[in-house]
Amino acid sequence: MSSRTLKVGTRGSTLATTQAGHVRDALIAAGYPAELVIVRTRGDVVMAPVERIGVGVFTLELRAALERGDCDIAVHSYKDLPTARDDRFAPIAVPPRVDPSDVLIARDGLTMDTLPQGARVGTSAPRRRSQLAALRPDLDLHPLRGNIDTRMGYVTSGDLDAVVLAAAGLDRTGAGERATHRFGIDEMLPAPAQGALAVEARADDTEAIEALAVVDHLPSRVRVIAERRLLADLEAGCTAPVGARAEFDDAGLDGGGVLTLHAVAAAHDGSTVLRTTGTTTPAEHPDGPVAAAEELGRRLAAELLERGARDLMTVESPEQRAPLVPKESTTAPPTVTDP
Ligand SMILES: NCc1[nH]cc(CCC(=O)O)c1CC(=O)O
Fold first, then answer.
1. What residues contact residue 274 under an 8 Å CB cut-off, 6+ apart?
2. Among the four residues 19, 24, 202, 265, which has the most C-beta atoms within 10 Å?
3. What is the pTM of this model?
4. Domain count, the chain
5. Is 165 close to ligand 1, i.e. is its CB under 6 Å away?
């Protein structure tokens, strides 16, 4: 082991630096000197909807910084990464995952059961919009962007009755108690890999690759692989109305437990929602747990395609109204249209 200090690259948001800070701490604890390096990305600057600026916007520039050597290790929110493998980098390591679910943050402690008819709810993600519309067709859905604090601010200010966010973002920044409702598996399935981090190093940096092994948690990686295989096989990006969530039973991976994958593909307006569930026992698979997870993701994707998922998802996304932008924002009106 050398004394080279590994530069851990991250976006600058509170969430991103908190997440990357955990990775840095784990590296240091394992004997690898490490420090954070903040990489500013256009996703942090431009307030246009993610559907327009491209899903890669959060991860593209961090990957470019890693390739250039501005950092040695990059920490991404896994769900923001494109599904295609990128050969510039070593296979992705996945630290222990936190709660993958979505949460509602509503005024006055309102939940999905008590939100009044026609309540104004903010979320841009097509996956959340379509599943919410299916659960509660009466809701008045508003697109919005911005970091977690900005989004929650619309509820505090009274502009919206509620917003939907990833539990992970709240839990990791210590704001988990702001959630008034955690969506269950039957209500809303998260984005594939939500709540998981993706940690990358350059493909030729053997020292950094060795360090990746100490932050990797195989059961978390196996769950994410099942979810992302499904997403890739549906040929959908993270802006598609596709949700997936894989969970081990109590026996876990080491105990030879069962991995269950829940998946959903929905029409943008929530008028049709295709759901499916399947299981596998990864520890018993002859080709290993990763192969078992891939097989499960493939199997459920094939089933959803068979049932018409592609037609459902390729139907034009409904015209959305202009997204809310933070009042204090000095950013010019969004003009960026390329990823
Ligand atoms: N696309 C934005 C994004 N990327 C990762 C998270 C939350 C943390 C995570 O899911 O790992 C969020 C915010 C959100 O969806 O509410």
1. 264, 265, 266, 304, 307, 308, 309, 312
2. 265
3. 0.90
4. 3
5. yes
Q: Length of the chain in residues, anyone?
A: 339
Which residues are designated catalytic? 79-80, 127-128, 145, 151, 238
Q: Cβ(43) to ligand 1 under 6 A?
A: no
Q: Does residue 91 lie within any of the structural domains? A: yes
Same domain, 9 and 86: yes
Residue 337 in any domain: the answer is no
Residue 269 token pair: 């307006």
Residue 220 near ligand 1, beta carbon < 6 Å:
no
Residues 170 and 207 in one domain: no
Neighbours of 258 (CB within 10 A): 16
- Model ipTM? 0.94
Q: What is the CATH number of the domain that holds 169?
A: 3.40.190.10
pLDDT at position 98 is 96
Task: Answer whether 70's CB lies under 8 Å from 9's CB.
Answer: yes
**How are beta strands 120-122 and 162-166 bridged, if at all?**
parallel
Structural domain including 152 reads 102-182
With bands split at pLDDT 50, 70 and 90, how would you rate the model's confidence at 46?
A: low
